[in-house]
Structures
1.
Amino acid sequence: MYTMSIAGEQVGGSDEVPVVNPATQEQFATMPDCSELQLEQAMTSARDAQTGWAAEGDDLRRELMHKCAATMDANTEELARILTSEQGKPMMEARWEVEAAAFHLRYFADLDFPKPEVIADDEQARVEVFHRPLGVVAAITPWNFPIALAIWKIAPSIRAGNTVVLKPSPFTPLATLRLGELFQESLPPGVLNVITGTETLGARMTSHAIPSKISFTGSVATGKKVAASAAANLTGATLELGGNDAAIVLDDIDLSAIATDLFWATFFNNGQACSAVKRLFVPEKLHDDFVDAWVAIAAETPVGEGTDESVQLGPVNNANQYDRVRKLITDAVAHGGRAIAPQDQEHEVGYYIPPTIVTGVSEGVALVDEEQFGPVLPILPYSSVDEALSRANATTYGLGGSVWTADPERGAALAARLESGTSWVNTHSQAPPFQPFGGWKWSGLGIENGHWGLGEMTAFKVIHTKKSSTDTEWRPA
Ligand code: NAD
């Protein structure tokens, strides 16, 4: 029985909503449906706990965050097993997600908090700038990395002295509910509330008057709704949204040296990653070699139920996403594309789509123009690097991008011209906790991670003390 964490208590909801295992398509558990009253209780308890939490002092917050990380270590296997059951990812990757999240939590516990800065101190005035907590953070996560992305939000929020009301996706609520329950052992009541519910719960959170900040990760379409909803109360929002990342391969590369890395930069988590490679630009003369290399890797990649330790790719997470990815493939073929899936054997049950490569398509086809968020990749030949760059940038997305080359300097010069929050050279998707992460264009607003991400969970506070009777006039116009 999975319960919500509200005001330090473990509670059921007004109803129980089924949760499906994508490998079996069976309803294997339920999540609580948060009532209107419970949402109020979660928000109020977060608000009431916040002043005390901020006053506790930074050392205690750091200590308790380390305690939470140790709890994650002690429960990695259980959390990973729940994650695999609800998300579909292989156990190996589920364990990695929990471990990476604990590492992330420790990073934020150890990070130096921005110190007060004296920006003027002369005979006329002393001016100091402080970072203060914002208040309550409403955090909303998607279904691809439920635990990791929850920690990306919890860690900087609570370190800065805020309290949190967190809502995972209804497709993957369980590991987050369990995480919330485990963290109650260390955190004071109300500091972290975890609630679950059907689709309207997110909108009720973002239009709520209590949060001072919304930290949202999800699709562009929902992100725009969140921004509109936040406007009603002028609530600040960090939005980490979708991507349609291009990888541009230059003609100097040694294909055998990069093929495996590039394959996994695409199909990691079944392509269900915001900054996975989603369009692959290769020089015309290397196109056929690329297709051959990728088909060979795809043919040998074990696909199946994540609880089987030999599996490297599980099912797609849910029926909607399965239908969407299948439709994108069918549509690409209808537009003259060739879909190559070297192991397209049927599974009797489960939302399985084997790693698929599509050739013979270009811009104007949905698979190229939209975010597929699944295990299918269009391979796009180009004739000049400038052409590849301009096609890579011709999108409303701007999350990530990469350049693959034997010449890192040439790669970095081209990476600088990619219109994306992060551009990698000879790798993709790397997002260590110390590195700022955020999207340009429709891929998001604001930044997570590093001291920049911690800063986003704080408000500037200026104290200007007059010292002289002959004060300089600096009043705003
Ligand atoms: P989604 O937008 O459908 O849902 C995300 C979350 O928002 C879920 O918890 C959902 O219940 C909630 N939600 C739904 N409607 C809402 C509303 N009106 N108001 C508030 N919340 C609402 O996204 P998804 O399908 O769960 O996740 C996939 C998307 O997330 C992809 O586009 C992917 O690229 C993106 N993503 C981005 C990042 C990043 O850091 N930029 C990371 C992971 C995933």
2.
Amino acid sequence: MINQNYLHIPGNYLFSEVAGRVAAYQEAHPHARLIHMGIGDVTRPLAPAVLQALHRAVDEMGREDTFHGYAPEQGYDFLCQAISEQEYAANGISIAPEEIFISDGAKEDCSDLQELFDQNCRVALCDPVYPVYAECNGMTGRAGQYDESAGRWRDIIYLPCIQENDYMPEIPREIPKLIYLCSPNNPTGVAMEKDRLQEWVDFANRTGGIIFFDGAYERYIQNQNVPHSIYSCSGAKTCAIEIRSFSKTAGFTGLRLGYTVIPKELKRDGRSIHRLWKRRLGARRNGVSYLTQRAGEAIYTPEGKKQVQSQIEYYKRNASLLRQTLLDQGYTVAGGVDSPYIWWKLDSETDSWSFFDRLLKQAHIIGTPGAGFGPGGEGYLRLTGFGSYEAAQVAACRLWEL
Ligand code: MLT
């Protein structure tokens, strides 16, 4: 009776497991002042421009002449238009508003898009990477058996992103049909430069694959050679779907807003992927609230732009402080430059869950064990810069005392 695929997935979702261990520790040590650097959840309040837009939208919902019911299934024109102009046209990329699908977050689309494709399509993903990609394919049976002790799915093609290859996924020998790329990568914080991304685009076009390009952290990019969008690469419109989020861009983890770009040119088996996704949304979702979409639009106003940029700078300062602290201690560290994440390489004998426990108990710092992001993450721990600057300073001192 039960979908058997659900019996193979790991017992807990990574961040639920972390939250459970932290709650148990806090209960046993109520006076411990824990510093939360585990899940990448934002802490700065919403930007004033966003707040004002929300208030205005709430008032509109309370009047008969400006009330809004169901939202259009692809999103309101005002938001699609703003994204098309400001995220793409302003950067020399042509994406029409109709190619944009507003969503209630990148996670939802990252996990659902694979349902459009045949069960036999091989999946490739970076290792380590955001665990959602593997698990959603596990739930539909495409990932095969999960080997708990090795932390691997049998049928997934893992693309190691480790220190030895500068954390860059390399084109595999086996040919995948569905390729998940996350740049800047969660958790390593390392971003792909244009030439490298172009190789993936060329590979996907040559082999008939599709790239799911997760750009949730694109606002953190500062390296000029790193593209913010996969559509900066030539030929990307015939092989790539881009997924973005307002969560880390503008603090919407609680509001929920994201978008997915599916170019009209993208076809497989002669079918438009855009049309299939639209069809799916019609049956499965009811759009994102008017309030949230008006809030999202506000980040494209001149004040909104400045305000969200300063939030990003704030988090980047934290990341930079943590990165520098670890480097000064002689550790090998990736990320923390084009990303809010710091990827901390542990001493070779240390497994990441044991180190997570030690960091929690001895320094009262919560990180995320690297093994939770895939087998290639073993021996690493991820810290986030999403807390307050004061907390980052205290954490830096505690790291010296560890
Ligand atoms: C993370 O910590 O990796 C992310 O915040 C999780 C998420 O975005 O769902």
3.
Amino acid sequence: MNSVELWESISATREAVRRARYSGQRIGFVPTMGALHDGHAALIRAARASTDFVVVSIFVNPTQFGPKEDFSKYPRTLEADQAICQQAGANGIYLPSVTEMYPERSVSVVEVTQLDQVLCGPSRPGHFRGVCTVVAKLFNIVLPDVALFGQKDAQQCRIIQQMVRDLNFPVTIQIEPTVREADGLAMSSRNRYLSAEERAVAPRIYQALQKVQDRVAWGERDVARLESELQQELASLPGARLDYARILDNESLTMVAIVERPCLVAVAVFLGTTRLIDNLTIPGFGPAP
Ligand code: AMP
């Protein structure tokens, strides 16, 4: 197995990608914040299957964290990350520095409007502007043919897809399913913050989402009723504080009254100080006869 290259500058990254492209290889790209787990590994493996030369970026992006969020204590585990990248088949890791990504006089940002007004947007002001800006910069540095993102961050997926469409980025966005622990908890770098008690409660978030899915399968279509049941269920979990639990149109992320077109059921819950998000999609049923 070849060892994974490590690039710490924009120029080194561009040079390695240029060489791969000149030899006819298609470039796959997986942007991450590190503290890699099996969810990230699945994205890297999927990139390997779709392309020939896979770049992973590891960058804890300061502009997507709020002042009271966990930027400084976000886990940084480079050695373990390198091993995971290697095993999953990445060719290189780009490790941007904050100073090269955000030189002192940089004042340009990328903002996708409307889609950032719901779900995580209001709870995390400026978060998606930080995400879009860094992803746009990374796309311009790596110039990938395909970039892969996890459905775990469903709103981020929709926003990046929209940014790529609106701003004509020459990249295909590939979305991969959420990878879960055996008990259903969505894998997340933040799961390591959970106490033993919180970890025991955490799988009930996904169970609550599945209950919505079951209710719809049994014929319930009323979104207000489904949402209120879901909110009550999550708010009653021991040690939990509900941020949001919403059922929205899966494409436009706008409100819907009945489950008709495909919907996104998305939740954010604090267990102690750790904010966990999860979601699932419900297929559409077409208009009522
Ligand atoms: P992060 O390092 O949390 O910024 O995530 C980097 C990428 O991995 C994003 O596209 C995430 O959606 C994706 N990701 C994170 N957790 C999972 C998971 N459990 N399953 C699939 N993809 C994931």
4.
Amino acid sequence: MAIIGEPLDRKDGRLKVTGRAHYAAEMAVPGVVHAELVESTISAGTILAIDTDAAKGMPGVLAIMTPDNAPRLKQVKPAMQLVPGPALQDKAVSYNGQNIALVIAETLEQAQAAAAKVRVRYQQDEPIIDMDAELGQAYVPKEFRGGRRPPDSQRGTPDTAFDAAQVKHEATYTTPVEHHNPMEPHATIARWDGDRLTVWTATQYVSGAQETLSKLFGMKPDNIRIISPYVGGGFGSKGNTWPPVTLAAMAARMVGRPVKLVLERKQMYTSNGYRPRTIQKLKLGAENDGTLVALRHDGFSQMSMGNFGEYSEPVGLPSEMLYAVANNAVTHRLVAVNQGLPTYMRAPGEAPGMFALESAMDELAVKLDMDPVALRLKNYAETDPHEDKPFSSKVLRECYRQGAEAFGWQNRSAPPRSMRDGRMLVGWGMATSTYPVNRMAASARIRLNADGTVLVSSGTQDIGTGTYTIMAQVAAQALGVPVGMVTTRLGDSTLPKAPVSGGSMTAASVSNAVQAAAEALRDKLFGLAQADARDGFSGVQTASLRLDRGAIVAGDRRLPVAELLARGNTDFIEAEAESKPGDEKKKYSMHAFGAQFAEVRVDPDLGEIRVSRFVGAFDVGHVLNAKTARSQLIGGITYGIGMALLEKTHVDPQTGGYVNANLAEYLVPVNADVPAIQTIIVPNDEHTSNPLGVKGMGELPMVGVAAAVANAVFHATGKRVRNLPIRIEDVMA
Ligand code: MOS
């Protein structure tokens, strides 16, 4: 029975389109009251006084929480999970839009009206806003990748090899501040019952939220329950437990009522991180035949001032492992400005980093007068040159081949401005994609009921990707039941622990946990059958037993599970199991790959750029659901088109505030911006990365898209644009 991989509809699809899937802000919590944030209007300085007199007396106002009266949190070492400063713990202001007070009232409108009457006096300092002007102040990250590896790496002698190279390319590429902009606003409802805290919140990590709040409030994790059954997108912004979650819990304790805090779109720009601006200096040196002899990638990313923890955009990581080049150097530096703490956003590191590397490779191909695909194949890494290990699996060569064939790449005329459709300039560009295969320990529990129905649960999250559905598919196949008999539960910290839904690791982590739990359950059932002499299963080897449509089967003997359970006087049988990485990361370099091909049409007079065709071919290992997989791939490529042509958060150089903090002026792709996208999943029957051979595909399909589009724009126009997003004025003749 092949259920894994089938293109089944989402189990939660009907609930979502009929409005019956309840998101955090929609939970019916009796007696709930409403909170509204007050944010700083300066970028640097100190709060001298917060005048709440006018606001306090307004109708419905229950409390106004400021740094003067806010409950003190435990002092913890700042980390990405713990951003305590903006939770009203002190009066320092280090960015425009920092959370500095919270008004709690009976209704949302009352809270909003009162928040507008809160007056703040500041002592203002001169803010530092322009990252580019501060490059001289760049510093070495203290905890790059959580301190798990140094920020710099080098092999061979990249600088001397570059100097001696026959063909050289050197350029700087930049990517702007971008915001995640999930459709669902960040929202939290917090309720105290004595010393127990329940939090309904939009999160990519229920057990992370539990752990963070337990540290900040000095509570036992078991006294905190996080509930998050549906998440309307996160893209990284809901991976950490940002101050508004903590503030809702503080406020609920202060007023002795459940408190709801839903961020407005504008507040989502200043309270939950963002992708930092990057400046990347690339150097590529090659022989005349295209063999790379030197690669240098120096990355600078924007950081915040203040003591909020540290985030580095790891732009150089793919440059270490993608190509077989003997002389290689990568560095990461931070540049602090008066902005909030940045964070990971879809394909952090890889998305901006591969824009730079794959644009540079295209520029090198032009200098070499070489086909861009041929240049990549010339430098194809058969093993990981950085880790000096074999790949767990890699069918990237086949991605290039199948992607190129589907796109019709062989018909490309190489010179820029040489392809037209009527008066439109046509450009074809390509780029490589890669993203690490991640996996962390995850647990799942499966219950098989006497009536044949199955409940599979795990404390993971479905952030819109299809986790509900793939969990059911894995359980159904392993237990030999139709998928319609399986119910999934997730998004609750009381369920067996699972990792953050980030780093593209949910499918790889949780599906293997479900598989392990199903196998444990199967073994239990087989053990019961073998222990019972009545049915002739006692002498049968476990390997000869299987589960089929609610019965244990060996040859032509069938023992219905219902009967087995009835004999034991129980309605169900249950098993829980954990699945965790073994030593595969020690033995192998584990990555997913892809090849991205873009066609653009550029109006030669108006400079308008449209992506008219897109083909992505991917090495993602095994697919659990062909339909949700395709949705992931289309979604990622769409996000990449936005990165290439539209997305940028504009910073006011005077105030450091964001001037386009709304979906009218922060441009994201709409249907009219996105052509029919062809996705290809290249077969890769691997089981080396993890038992089910799932490589993950949450972030991979975005990587390389911006470069493929930029390379296509160059091919169409002859204009090389190295700063994203590419705008009309960049390509106007
Ligand atoms: Mo993703 S940016 O790892 O949530």
